[in-house]
From TrEMBL:
Its EC number is 2.7.13.3. It comes from Haloferula chungangensis. This is histidine kinase. The keyword Hydrolase does not apply. Residues 168-384 form the Histidine kinase domain. Pfam families: HATPase_c, HisKA, Response_reg. Residues 8-125, 406-520 form the Response regulatory domain. InterPro entries: CheY-like_superfamily, HATPase_C_sf, HATPase_dom, His_kinase_dom, HisK_dim/P_dom, HisK_dim/P_sf, Sig_transdc_His_kin-like_C, Sig_transdc_resp-reg_receiver. Keywords: Coiled coil, Phosphoprotein. PROSITE patterns: HIS_KIN (PS50109), RESPONSE_REGULATORY (PS50110).
Amino acid sequence: MTSTRSIKFLLVDDLDANLVALAGLLERPGLELLMARSGREALEILLEHEVALAFLDVQMPEMSGFELAELMRGTERTRDVPIIFLTAGTVDQKRRIRGYETGAVDFLPKPIDPEILLNKATTFFELAKRREELRESEARLRAANEELERKNAELAESGVQKDRFLAVLAHELRNPIAPVLTGLEMMVTADNCPKEIVDLAEMMRRQIGQMVHLINDLLDVSRINTGKIALRMERVDINEVVTEAMESARTFIDSRGHELSFVSENDSLAVEGDRHRLFQVVSNMLSNAAKYSPPNGKIDVKSGIDGDGNAYVTVRDNGEGISEENLPKIFEMFEQVDSSRQEGLGIGLTLVMNLMELHGGGVGATSEGLGKGSEFRIWLPALVQRKEEKPVILNRPENRQFAPAKVMVVDDGKSTADIIVMFLNLEGMETRVAYNGEEAVRVAREFKPEMIFMDLGMPKMDGYQAAEEIRKLDPDVIMIAVSGWGREEDKRRSKEAGFDGHAVKPVEPEDLRQFLSLIC
Ligand code: ADP
């Protein structure tokens, strides 16, 4: 790569003849020679041009070469310009030192030896050329980088626009569907409607159902991409989700003659997740397995806990399989291995991946190759197993006897609270219930319970806050924390907050009895 800009040398001498002779020796393509007859002229040139090397005559009237060099050293712009002094006759040691102090790189005695001069000039010329080339390629690189950043920003913007467009499109497509569905429903249920029409309407209803499904997927993906999806987290048994998804996909799976099985290594498999979204994920895997397997295939579903403490679900089929090269692509938006083969938009797996990532988990696929079936696996952190979640008594009060005891239950989940109350009533307790933190404090003030089962996660005033308020009313009341979590750190937190026990949901009769033994 050659530089496009010429290299500049400055020649300073008060005698024209010397300048001309010097220039004659130095001339070469790509080199511009700037000439000055005095120090002042030289400074003016230096202000305007970037100079790669300066030849300074030492003896000049007004300003000597040394004085000019000193001024150059004191100015930011010219500080690093290499200088070669041209001296008449020999230079004594003292003057030489002064010259080097002002930054000279060399001395050339007059009359100038052309060979030495050319040697030195060539070295500086080549050096300056390299530097210039480097600078130019740096500038080119910077420009390319800026262009890349601009393109990136454009791409990001078009991505946002695409997501907005998809969201609007999906909305607009969904709106007219509701009345069509209602109309079809009316046709199907109308008295005296000929059977052919009913069949037709049912077929249309199925087709529209498919369409609604696709539109909803589209809407979901665009919501996820724009960060507008929020999971409703709760304690979910993933095995229940799998069973529900299998029931819901059953008609489609049966229609293709597939055999479906489900085994789990665990009776129940608790995770913290959004039940509806997890159902969507498993349904998607099941319908793909059915879709991408020739009729009368075999679909095996399995669940369990892996070595990393994640709950997993695998869906294995013996269908068409996926080639090695296509495996990494199938999770990309709108990616279909062969779009002519099946209906669908190629967004199902993108949605599965996004939803699993939102759950702090993931999805993976394996296949031994075309025609050899595939296995899809999802995973997400498992909650500690029930077996290890035995309720624990954290503080044991001494010599307390109450009979019959007054027990209060606090939980914002009405059905959870009511079941615990029902059981306590059966055990002969006198009970009260509160469905939020504020109510709990109010009821506790009047009812003066001896024991309280307190849900921790409640909106506004949570279990910790409510417990703190109640403790102020009655420092001796026994309080049991009821939580979806049973890890050591959760129990420690309950203990630190002054709870006397920690129970993990769902609280079973046996757990309650154990706590009641504290007061009865
Ligand atoms: P769609 O099913 O709408 O095409 P998906 O995102 O669900 O979109 O799947 C993307 C692609 O992955 C499919 O087009 C198909 O080629 C491949 N694929 C998904 N599941 C399976 C499976 N169980 N067996 C073989 N190929 C599959």
